[in-house]
Amino acid sequence: MSDNTQDLIAQLRAIVGDAGLVTDADAQAPYLKDWLGKWQGRVTVVVRPADTAQTAEVVRLCHITHTPIVAQGGNTGMSGGGTPDDSGAQVILSTTRMNRIREVDPLNNTMTVDAGVILANAQQAAREADRYFPLSLGAEGSCTVGGNLATNAGGIAVLRFGNMRELALGLEVVLPDGRIWNGLRGLRKDNTGYDLRDLFIGSEGTLGVITGAVLKLFAQPHARATAWVGADTLEQLVELLARTRARCGERLVAFEMMSAASLALVLQHVADTRAPLAQPAAFNALIELADTEDGGLQAMLEDVLGQALEDGLVNDAMFCASQAQSAALWKLREGISQAQVRAGKVVKHDIALPISSLAAFTQAADAAIAGEDIPAEIINFGHLGDGNLHFNVMIPLSSTYEEVKHATAVFNRLVHDMVARMNGSISAEHGVGQLRRDELRHYKQPLEMELMLRIKQAFDPNLIMNPGKLL
Amino acid sequence: MSDNTQDLIAQLRAIVGDAGLVTDADAQAPYLKDWLGKWQGRVTVVVRPADTAQTAEVVRLCHITHTPIVAQGGNTGMSGGGTPDDSGAQVILSTTRMNRIREVDPLNNTMTVDAGVILANAQQAAREADRYFPLSLGAEGSCTVGGNLATNAGGIAVLRFGNMRELALGLEVVLPDGRIWNGLRGLRKDNTGYDLRDLFIGSEGTLGVITGAVLKLFAQPHARATAWVGADTLEQLVELLARTRARCGERLVAFEMMSAASLALVLQHVADTRAPLAQPAAFNALIELADTEDGGLQAMLEDVLGQALEDGLVNDAMFCASQAQSAALWKLREGISQAQVRAGKVVKHDIALPISSLAAFTQAADAAIAGEDIPAEIINFGHLGDGNLHFNVMIPLSSTYEEVKHATAVFNRLVHDMVARMNGSISAEHGVGQLRRDELRHYKQPLEMELMLRIKQAFDPNLIMNPGKLL
Fold this sequence. Notes:
homodimer; alpha+beta; Uridine Diphospho-n-acetylenolpyruvylglucosamine Reductase, domain 3; Alpha-Beta Plaits; five-stranded antiparallel β-sheet; 17 helices; 19 strands; FAD (chains A, B); FAD-bd_PCMH_sub1 (chains A, B); Oxid_FAD_bind_N (chains A, B); FAD-binding oxidoreductase (chains A, B); FAD-bd_oxidored_4_C (chains A, B)
């Protein structure tokens, strides 16, 4: 360890104390590797400030010493945005000790929280005030609100409540020079200049460290109705989505899609699952309505889907009569990740398209992938209601490292070229991080990259905030 | 006219043709003055490009010649953001010839429009596709979508659908050097870098000229229920808002407040109006629910307000049995502007606070204003559901210019000091423009002003975009 490094650690210790430093190699290990095991880095030290003031001091010290900072929340990212590089020169700033619910304001329908609050705890705090915080995603038991903000997290309720961006009213951010921007405003209307908040949201730790947020709360849903339908084509499901929305309005809270292959994979590899319909369908949808009170929610869903059956838009439908049945359907949807891991090696995609283009994309991409000389099965599923497909391509479990690498390059290019042509996004909800950084430069308009770099330069001229990510 | 000016006009004519230039003084007049008659400027010329390509050429020319540009839509702003200064050196770039609905995509629930489309025409285009575009405000018959975006317009449906910011998915912007940023993406999820869209929205023409947008559409409401209630205190209405939201969820589309003085003013000065309740109430609320289908909407509203009556939270309630009755209630709410003009001279405010602070603010501000040695009546009304009060102070119609000036300085300072202490906004939905520019510098955190200036510098280093506004 160099003198400089020892000196930096001593100064950090003076700010955060022993409790705020992780120097031991074993203790550091979980911070250095992403949970998918794709990226592994090294650091000078992991620092865990107890509050915003300590965070500001830590960042100020890194500013002075030109020490690069990787902010990390629950370390549940999909794109390596929170994993350090392997230079050993970076510092991980973990927000996990900052985990206070600062205030719940039921009359304002807002909640102010530390960035390190775990998403499930934020949901729980809202529930305890008879309110609802709608962000919901697989990692909610360990991801943090700060990470959700830094990556503008999505999940299953976006079609109804929007991304994390739409769920935050105010932010507190430590800027790259250690000054604190207090933007913790709980206002629905504020037109006093440039929207700094939304610049930090989704910037993946490259413009500052988010330390707190004011989040929007909603009325608690007290009734739900869930159904599963099968259709021959994706066009039919897109049409059904439009019909359901026109009829049910904002009661529609989930419209998830699974192809026949996705469902078959889950049924084969996940215990205690069974097919919801008598006959397999080419495309399945899990549809859920919610409301503050019942008022015939189930009847409404049966009516709209009954009409769709009559019109031949769907082949079959199954309605849940109990919470257990609904949970069984959600288990099918949520079992895909696990099933994929067991069944093969997966070239993942996280794309978004205009909903009106999803069917055409799927047809074209299916054909193009079949035309490649690589044994592959398409696992097409996702959040149809907001145009987000996880259009994954699975290759045999026995594939070598080189084969995976080749397949990834081929299929990423094929899928993303098509997405770019159709005015879609190559990263709908997982962010760019390290995973899509090179692709971003390839696909983004040069003008847009230039504007992003100008912003980076304006906010972080020393380039110490999460270097090597996003940009 | 100098040679330089003649030269500039000739070059502009080469781009936009005779149809795109307004050089005649009479024809220019409506562009040079805001509709409230508060600001009046002069220009070299008014240029009206026919499309995005022409706009880009015009801006490119201004970039080369360092000619300052004031972008203007329907010229309905409240803060002078679209009025040129009186140097005569500026050029007005009017977007009003760019008025095409480019595309309506019902399956994607989006609409792509030129910036110059009048808001009411955008609403109409949505309706024709059996969809709903919810932005609604007094000027909707003449304001443009581009102006709505540049000022992040609010209005009466924000508590349910958000500001213009929440209603836009993609933008097309001509940058200060004349290059076109095509961000016309119709995606609900897109996490590929910094959020440029939201930087332009609300930037009041200081970072570029918005020429097109992709807007979100919603399901058409097919049922509405409207009621009027009277209460003794603002606390009671805030509590009623919370209850109504908990019970009715997103059916609640309007919760407007009028003080007794506001209502009395309308009844006195606007023809064909009558009091909705038998006894005047200190605070009134106009409450509206909407839904895609009826399903007992009226009964739900009667139930929640009936319970509030029983609990003594409100004194009286009137339910609308017809569209005509509902229109009569809305006429009371919308009549305030007209009534104020007839009754006195008005020191206007457009503030936002956490909803939980509205009552405390009102009490304190009422007392403080009564303590000033200026004859004044408080006209307190606004969008209670999103914390936005137009807390206006009316002084006698006979007040002199000097008296108005003095009262404005005193009451602006008093109200805005209080708003700042309560973590509110001094410009909720009207923007900064010229009206609040000096106050913005006074109230905004220096750090936030600094970040805004850095962004301005990064995007518009020659400072040609709407100089003298906002910053």
